[in-house]
Amino acid sequence: MPKYPYGKRSTDLLSQVDEDLYDIFMDVGDLINTTILPSTIRTVEEQREFVRTGRSKTMNSKHLQGKAVDAAPYPVDWRLDKELLDVVKDALEDGFFDKDKFKEILNNIKRWYEFVGIVKGVAEGQGVSVRHGRDFKGFLDLPHVELKE
Ligand SMILES: [Zn+2]
Fold first, then answer.
1. CATH class for domain 8-78+118-147?
2. What is the pTM of this model?
3. Separation of CA 108 and ligand 1 centre (Å)
4. Which end of the chain, C or N, has fewer beta carbons within 10 A?
């Protein structure tokens, strides 16, 4: 059991992925409180819906083969770059800069990138080649990690 134990849903999801990914996330759970997102395991119908709504680019997703995991630092905070830009936009339009909100969102972005770095570092340490959603061209998918193969 990792230092930051996974909840029941996360444990169920991890039990359905490739052993290499399972091992990576057991070690990640020793370093940072993590949750595994339900989008980790998908049916073909669910994948079709992901593509239709623009959340995925391909029907050839590794999520259909247990070779990808969507995970997030827990508790999950989805406020990222777009929200940061909104604070700046508000400041420009209304002349009021919400410094606290800006810092909060900035810290959340840092936390996400720290999480992505931990996952990457653990995978490298285990000698497993992975590809990150962070590295997708023109499509930022921070929770995503998949086996390269
Ligand atoms: Zn994914």
1. alpha beta
2. 0.91
3. 20
4. N
Q: How far is the CA of 18 from the centre of ligand 1 (A)?
A: 14
Mean pLDDT for each 10-residue chunk of the chain (149 residues)?
95 98 98 97 96 92 97 95 92 94 96 96 97 83 92
What's the CA-to-centroid distance between 126 and ligand 1, angstroms?
21
- CA of 53 from ligand 1 middle (Å) equals 14
Q: Which residues contact 9 (CB under 8 A, 6 or more apart)?
A: 36, 38
Domain residue spans of the chain? 8-78+118-147
Asked if residue 66 lies in contact with residue 46, where contact means CB atoms within 8 angstroms, the answer is: no
